[in-house]
Structures are given as structure tokens and as C-alpha cells.
Design goal:
The chain has three helices and seven strands. By secondary structure, it is an alpha+beta fold. The strands form three sheets. The protein has a three-stranded antiparallel beta sheet, with helices on one face. Strands 3-4 form a two-stranded antiparallel sheet. β3 (62-63) and β4 form a beta hairpin. The longest helix is centred in the first third of the chain and has 16 residues, at 3-18. The radius of gyration is 19 Å and the shape is globular. The termini are far apart. Residues 5-28 have low confidence and may be disordered.
Amino acid sequence: MRRREFIACVIAGCFAAIIPADPTYSQTTKPAATENALAAKINCKDFQKSSDGKWTSSAGTRIGKLDFSSHTFGVGEVNIGGADLAIVLSRKCSAN
């Protein structure tokens, strides 16, 4: 493959990655579905929220198959499958 063709393929591949393959894709529903899927895997009693808004997981905490023992984190620090764990915990567990 010549250099010009290679560069064209790389550029075309980049654009293909940016444009969603599904024309019904909605940025408002995809995050909600991702957050709901993560929320279903969370047991609120495994997490405790501190006064500074950070969350701490108990020893032995698992999220699905993921070992998540004894972690402290806040918003923007832990992303699981495209969902911010602290945001999901706040929505699901703050009232508990």
C-alpha cells in the first residue's frame, strides 16, 4: 500500500469511528442505559459516602466480576462501562 493510500485509510477509519453506526443512536438515552446497567450491579450497603462527597467501598466489594475492595473516589475518578460510578452511587444510594 502506498503512503497516500495508507493515510487516506487512516483518515477514513477515524471518521468511521466518530460517526455512530446506528442512526437511531441517542446521546440522551445511552448514558442512562449504561448507568442503569451499572446501578443494577451495585449493592448500596457496600459503599459509604463521606462528608466531602467521596465514596468508599468496603473490603470485599464487587461490582459484577470486578473486585472493587477498599477504594475511595469522587465524581470523575472511576468510570465503569461508560458510567461515572460516583454519580450512579449518588443517584441510587444517597437516600439509603
